């Protein structure tokens, strides 16, 4: 006797196709984000002025989406690993201070300043992780403390670095020209876009200047990180460990997964994502201030949840967070292309979050067979 | 002379500070044998399992694996010595797929250097094949473990331990949360594992389940071995009484009056 489900036609591969396509689809965590994005795109295609979906219009909402998305991808990985980092917004400000001060106060050149910034962020991320792991306290509380500590340190540090101001200026001037700056500032793929403009795919202003001359670098980072994170999650051993660490840390540990190390790495990655956003924005604006990254922790976590991450960990996707961030940027910027009052944005945001959480729970119950 | 037993524990003691969890437990497991470890709550079953699994080191006593004295510093070492423990939580993550759970912590990889990656296809193929061998028809190895029944989950956990080369399988109450059909499925599988020459330590407090597959029965009470009995030496009712009452009994193999 073997009490398994009724075997039919022992061991043939064609039974694999018996899994309904819909079930397979529903099992993908990013389904909600893709569906939401399609819905919102349809909405704006109908209500927004057509410039929104011109090349310039698309980049216009992808830029803020990318800055949020880099954070959301880090937050998604960490959430899948079963932890939160509420300090990520403050980390953007603090890393911005570390980067700005390295250049303006310590007169470091660009590359060493980047390394210092990443090292500072990584150390704080590792410290968050150690406190969470050693004390067993919820990361929610531990990083809530870090949120205030880092924001406060940024204020104090900025006043120290500037002699009393909460804004540190002059980063661009101090940097001057540096080859290493290219991946962190301005536009990418200029050559390609010149050709696209010449070929008539992209419009010109009346002055003859192209409406789009290249892709802002943060979008390139955003796409690259989403691809890398997705590959790591789905196709590497470490990705398997992330799901396991978040899904059931005890089971993972009993199976030989180094849970503490996995979580520490995720906190460090999250902090480095925040530092990357800080570097990109400081290089872009030439200054940093104490309000950088304000409330980004909420937006990043919301984007991750819209992307299918469960608050309880163990489930979610990086590509979902990618789509969730685009959805976010589209709504934030898109309302300006309509006659709708832009303040509806917050209402929409909260509504999206609620729908996403309900949807995630329903899908999980139905498809995951959680008993 | 018989080959050395797979596991031989003699007079194992384990102290946790002032608490004496084990005070002289002996256990022998041979190849192709199911040893049932019976005992009520607090009898010391968990401590003994964890000692076998390498979670605790014994405070005193002899612990031999295949004739060699061992002292495990970690579960990993016990595993390397061929002792695989399937704990009640099964060490499986419900939201992860069968294939990913099957290889959790021991993922097959392909590629090289930074491109070294999880071989998902190989994992799925092996998981499906191994489960087919024990009669669990997995249509889709990407299906989450949470969608399996309790008995199937237990069997997947056992199949995983067997696949990774366990010589001794320690099963911690594998039938405690299962219905009748599911229990039958697990007991049936334990029989198959024995037929493959593995030694099995089957922990339970259900005498009927123990009696269905056991070759020998060791009863624990308050950290002591009350006795070890070969199959046929003791009936179900006697086992039950022994477990419940824990009264003084004749030693190993000695016949008791009134018992056929």
Write structural notes for this entry.
The complex is a heterodimer of chains A (371) and B (260). Chain A has 371 residues and is mainly α. Chain A has a single domain, classed as ABC transporter involved in vitamin B12 uptake, BtuC (Orthogonal Bundle), CATH 1.10.3470. Helix content of chain A is 66%, strand content 2%. Chain A contains 15 helices and four strands. Chain A has helices spanning 21-26, 31-47, 55-80, 88-104, 110-135, 139-162, 171-175, 190-198, 217-235, 237-247, 249-254, 259-285, 296-306, 318-334, 344-368, and strands at 167-168, 187-188, 215-216, 288-289. In chain A, the strands form two sheets. In chain A, strands 1-4 form a two-stranded antiparallel ribbon. In chain A, strands 2-3 form a two-stranded antiparallel sheet. In chain A, helix 3 packs antiparallel against helix 12 (259-285), helix 3 (55-80) packs across helix 13 and helix 13 (296-306) crosses helix 14. The two termini of chain A are 25 Å apart. Mean pLDDT of chain A is 89; it is low at 1-17. With 260 residues, chain B is α/β, with parallel strands linked by helices. Chain B has a domain at 7-95 and 166-245: Rossmann fold (3-Layer(aba) Sandwich), CATH 3.40.50. Chain B has helices at residues 45-53, 75-80, 98-102, 120-133, 150-163, 180-195, 207-213, 236-245, and strands at 7-16, 19-29, 34-39, 60-65, 68-69, 83-86, 109-110, 117-118, 168-172, 199-204, 216-221, 224-230. In chain B, the strands form three sheets. Chain B has a six-stranded mixed beta sheet with strand order 6-9-10-3-11-12, with helices on both faces. Chain B has a four-stranded antiparallel beta sheet with strand order 2-1-4-5, with no helix packed on it. In chain B, strand 11 and strand 12 (224-230) form a beta hairpin. In chain B, helix 5 runs parallel beside helix 6. The longest helix of chain B is centred in the last third of the chain and has 16 residues, at 180-195. Chain B is globular. In chain B, 49% of the residues are buried. The mean pLDDT of chain B is 85. The chains are: A mainly alpha (371), B alpha/beta (260). Chains A and B meet through helix 9, helix 10, helix 11 and helix 15 of A and helix 2, strand 8, helix 4 and helix 6 of B.
